[in-house]
């Protein structure tokens, strides 16, 4: 079956079609989740959560042709939720912090911090463009926004990244 | 400049590309299968709820008809609809609550026991809206399930609190844990569902009605906006859940004469809390247990729980492990490798940064590795010999140090990274920065951390 046929069947409640469709994307989904969470277990959990939500809601999807962008959108929401949970982390006593410290490179943490400070919509566009290598049309389908809006977000995201990295302050690492 | 950022971004996302190539197929398959199974379970439970609602509704209507015909004088629509509502109460559990409660654990048990209390109270102001959909409580613990939205952006509470109807704050503490704690659900248009958990201190209970109040914050905007919202919540005293259980352990461990009792394991809403007590006869102050791990031994497997909270009161510790899916009866295994006692000497080191010498150390284990200029800072690198490889032994200074004249200087507080630890074989290395300046030498650093003695002894306790 073609992807659209599979998606249509999945939306009608065909579990096997849903499984085939999602399994075919599982490595891609994991990569997207990893690009947000940078942690194997967290990324796997985000994939699991996205699959769960997708199965619950797929009956309501009006356009089966948009199944994959829709699935990626759900996954991105899961990752954003997970990132938010991480921000709520209550730190353990100081010693435990030290135990988990590692020497990390300047440029990676600098960019990571800049992305972290950025509004989520800009980050989504940058990730889909520079990690997933999607076209603006494809990104627009994932984010369910007009192509022009996505183009603006991409431009503004890059500009913001420049601004935030330049105002990030001097960092020192071992 | 934009091209440079594009190149950096591509490099940045390479780690995800590599990770996605390396992840073993079975792990991905397992994640997809587990997600699908959970989704199926939720859909099934939703379908059962719908069928139950229809069935109960039909029965209620039939009863209404029969009673209306047989006993017209006793006909009371409000009483009967109340009965139907009571019978249909299970149908009021929203899908996201089912999702947040997971498949196992004390929340799942409470939901399955029909202890969910529908609240459905809303507060709104300035485009922000919060509805407390429902609650689970035993009067000592409160789990509030909410739906929020704020002008298209997701809003969440910032330090929410509980108040009495007279606006006296309750001493309820919000439970916060690590990254695995909540499974909030985001929908299109900034609609967000999540739960807030509060624990009341021992001896205090929830009143029959209370307020949830706090600032609800839009975190997505460049400048977060917030609104103060409060929701009045009634408690149904006849629908209290079991949200806490205590397992007595009472096992004493002996580390070269230093005794530690594993007293109890308490299960509450999201965690398992182990209470460890140091024996008053100990002649050394116990600092922490070394290598402590808590496992769920269900079906013979070893699922490790993450330590998320730690409290110490001088007599012992309470260690909280994040275990929302722990179910009554699951066997637990507590293992450890030893006991660390507190350092009893003077926690102070004196360093001459001009001559690069260590003038005074807490003991002979500490050595000065190097002192180097690093930008506008001086980087001081020390090392401590460890009894085991990979241990984080650090001589970590307090936030201020003093020169030979007694003048105090703060450590850098500019948001940058000015300290780090690293393990090198049997040496534990640590560096910290001080501002580069001409100091009257030597400099004295009072230490907030310095390792004591490690008494190595493996132990394993089975808890049932």
Automatic annotation (TrEMBL), chain A:
<dbReference type="Pfam" id="PF08281">
    <property type="entry name" value="Sigma70_r4_2"/>
</dbReference>
<comment type="similarity">
    <text>Belongs to the sigma-70 factor family. ECF subfamily.</text>
</comment>
<dbReference type="GO" id="GO:0006352">
    <property type="term" value="P:DNA-templated transcription initiation"/>
</dbReference>
<dbReference type="GO" id="GO:0016987">
    <property type="term" value="F:sigma factor activity"/>
</dbReference>
<keyword id="KW-0805">Transcription regulation</keyword>
<dbReference type="InterPro" id="IPR013249">
    <property type="entry name" value="RNA_pol_sigma70_r4_t2"/>
</dbReference>
<dbReference type="InterPro" id="IPR013325">
    <property type="entry name" value="RNA_pol_sigma_r2"/>
</dbReference>
<protein>
    <submittedName>
        <fullName>RNA polymerase sigma-70 factor (ECF subfamily)</fullName>
    </submittedName>
</protein>
<dbReference type="InterPro" id="IPR014284">
    <property type="entry name" value="RNA_pol_sigma-70_dom"/>
</dbReference>
<dbReference type="InterPro" id="IPR007627">
    <property type="entry name" value="RNA_pol_sigma70_r2"/>
</dbReference>
<feature type="domain" description="RNA polymerase sigma factor 70 region 4 type 2">
    <location>
        <begin position="110"/>
        <end position="161"/>
    </location>
</feature>
<dbReference type="InterPro" id="IPR013324">
    <property type="entry name" value="RNA_pol_sigma_r3/r4-like"/>
</dbReference>
<keyword id="KW-0731">Sigma factor</keyword>
<dbReference type="GO" id="GO:0003677">
    <property type="term" value="F:DNA binding"/>
</dbReference>
<keyword id="KW-0804">Transcription</keyword>
<dbReference type="Pfam" id="PF04542">
    <property type="entry name" value="Sigma70_r2"/>
</dbReference>
<dbReference type="InterPro" id="IPR036388">
    <property type="entry name" value="WH-like_DNA-bd_sf"/>
</dbReference>
<feature type="domain" description="RNA polymerase sigma-70 region 2">
    <location>
        <begin position="25"/>
        <end position="88"/>
    </location>
</feature>
<dbReference type="InterPro" id="IPR039425">
    <property type="entry name" value="RNA_pol_sigma-70-like"/>
</dbReference>
From TrEMBL, chain B:
<feature type="transmembrane region" description="Helical">
    <location>
        <begin position="48"/>
        <end position="71"/>
    </location>
</feature>
<keyword id="KW-0472">Membrane</keyword>
<keyword id="KW-1133">Transmembrane helix</keyword>
<protein>
    <recommendedName>
        <fullName>DUF4179 domain-containing protein</fullName>
    </recommendedName>
</protein>
<keyword id="KW-0812">Transmembrane</keyword>
């Amino acid at each position: 079956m073609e992807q659209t046929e599979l998606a249509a069947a999945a939306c009608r409640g065909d579990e096997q079609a849903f499984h085939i469709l999602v399994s075919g994307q599982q490595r891609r989904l994991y990569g997207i989740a990893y690009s947000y969470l940078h942690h194997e277990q967290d990324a796997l959990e985000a994939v699991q959560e996205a699959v769960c939500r997708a199965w619950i809601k797929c009956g309501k999807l009006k356009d089966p042709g948009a199944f994959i962008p829709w699935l990626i959108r759900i996954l991105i929401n899961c990752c954003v939720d997970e990132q938010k949970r991480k921000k709520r982390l209550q730190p353990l006593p100081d010693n435990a912090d030290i135990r988990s410290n590692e020497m990390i490179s300047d440029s990676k943490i600098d960019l990571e911090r800049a992305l972290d400070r950025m509004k989520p919509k800009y980050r989504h566009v940058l990730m889909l463009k520079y990690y997933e290598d999607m076209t603006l049309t494809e990104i627009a389908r994932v984010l369910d926004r007009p192509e022009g809006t996505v183009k603006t977000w991409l431009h503004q995201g890059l500009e913001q990244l420049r601004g935030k990295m330049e105002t990030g302050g001097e960092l020192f690492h071992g | 400049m934009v091209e440079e950022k594009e190149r950096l971004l591509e490099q940045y996302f390479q780690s995800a590309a590599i990770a996605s190539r390396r992840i073993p197929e079975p792990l991905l398959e397992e994640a997809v299968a587990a997600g699908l199974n959970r989704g199926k379970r939720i859909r099934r439970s939703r379908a059962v709820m719908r069928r139950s609602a229809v069935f109960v509704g039909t029965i209620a209507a039939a009863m209404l008809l029969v009673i209306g015909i047989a006993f017209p004088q006793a006909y009371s629509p409000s009483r009967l609809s109340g009965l139907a509502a009571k019978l249909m109460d299970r149908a009021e559990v929203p899908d996201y609550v089912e999702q947040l409660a997971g498949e196992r654990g004390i929340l799942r048990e409470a939901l399955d026991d029909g202890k969910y209390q529908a609240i459905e109270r809303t507060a709104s102001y300035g485009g922000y809206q919060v509805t407390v959909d429902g609650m689970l409580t035993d009067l000592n613990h409160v789990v509030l399930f909410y739906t929020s939205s704020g002008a298209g952006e997701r809003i969440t509470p910032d330090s929410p609190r509980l108040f009495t109807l007279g606006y006296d704050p309750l001493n309820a503490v919000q439970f916060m844990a690590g990254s695995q704690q909540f499974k909030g659900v985001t929908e299109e248009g900034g609609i967000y569902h999540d739960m807030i958990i509060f624990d009341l201190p021992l001896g205090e209970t929830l009143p029959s009605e209370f307020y949830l109040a706090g600032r609800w914050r839009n975190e997505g905007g460049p400048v977060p906006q917030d609104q103060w919202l409060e929701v009045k919540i009634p408690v149904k005293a006849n629908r209290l859940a079991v949200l806490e259980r205590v397992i007595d352990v009472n096992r004493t461990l002996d580390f070269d004469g230093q005794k530690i009792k594993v007293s109890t394991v308490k299960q509450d809403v999201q965690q398992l809390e182990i209470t460890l007590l140091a024996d008053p006869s100990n002649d050394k102050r116990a600092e922490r247990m070394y290598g402590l791990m808590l496992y769920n031994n269900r079906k013979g497997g070893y699922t490790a729980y993450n330590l998320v909270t730690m409290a110490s009161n001088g007599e012992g510790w309470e260690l909280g492990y994040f275990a929302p899916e722990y179910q009554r009866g699951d066997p637990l295994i507590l293992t450890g490798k030893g006991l660390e006692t507190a350092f009893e000497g003077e926690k102070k080191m004196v360093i001459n940064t001009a001559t690069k010498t260590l003038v005074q150390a807490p003991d002979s284990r500490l050595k000065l590795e190097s002192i180097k200029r690093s930008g506008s800072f001086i980087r001081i690198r020390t090392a401590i010999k460890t009894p085991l490889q990979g241990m984080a032994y650090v001589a970590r200074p307090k936030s201020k140090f003093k020169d030979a004249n007694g003048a105090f200087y703060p450590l850098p507080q500019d948001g940058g990274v000015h300290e780090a630890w690293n393990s090198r074989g049997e040496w534990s290395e640590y560096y910290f920065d001080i501002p580069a300046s001409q100091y009257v030498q030597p400099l004295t650093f009072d230490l907030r951390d310095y390792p004591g003695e490690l008494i190595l002894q493996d132990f394993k306790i089975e808890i049932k």
